[in-house]
Amino acid sequence: MYVIADDFRALHDLNISDRRRGGDPAELAVATLNAMLDTLKQRRSLFLLASTWQSASGLMGIGDLLLEQLHALRRDLGIDGRGSGPGNSVEDVYTASGVHGVFSAAVGGNTDCDPEEIAIRLYALLPAWIPPPQPPTT
User: Fold this and answer.
1) Residues sharing a CB contact under 8 Å with residue 18, sequence separation 6 or more, in sequence order
2) What number of CA atoms fall less than 13 Å from residue 38's CA on the CB side?
3) pLDDT tens across 59-74, in order?
4) CB atoms < 10 A from the CB of 137, how many?
């Protein structure tokens, strides 16, 4: 768990740093999801082992790490903190569990799309607060 958590934290820090330098939030989010998935594929044995551990949040290990990543993203983007505290929001638990499920299927090679498409399709399914607001059309 600690090895994967360190990998995820480093990817999160890079994402936030690149955003602050003016990087496109959508491109950075997709790149971060791709990097997270690549990390899990490279550490497949650790991923499988960590996925069996049930944390205090009630989620299985990697799901719990993804929930932590959502909380960190909310904090670092200045989004409301409703996902933190003793009770996690249903939206965040659902998102973390869903991403974990997609990552599990992708690591096992059991998805309906090319590996290059997984992060793009996953990003499109994330909660509305994650994608950047779209400028109004005139």
Assistant:
1) 28
2) 9
3) 888 888 999 999 998 8
4) 4
Q: How far apart are CA 43 and CA 38, in angstroms?
A: 9
Place of tokens 């790490």: 65
In whole angstroms, give the CA distance from residue 67 to residue 97. 8
Alpha-carbon torsion (63, 42, 31, 20), positive or negative:
positive
Q: What are phi and psi of 60, to 5 degrees?
A: -70, 155
- pTM, two decimals, is 0.83
Report CA-CA distances (Å) from 11 to 18, 38, 39, 63, 110: 11, 11, 10, 16, 24
3 state DSSP class of 108: coil
CA distances from 62 to 47, 52, 108 (A): 7, 9, 15
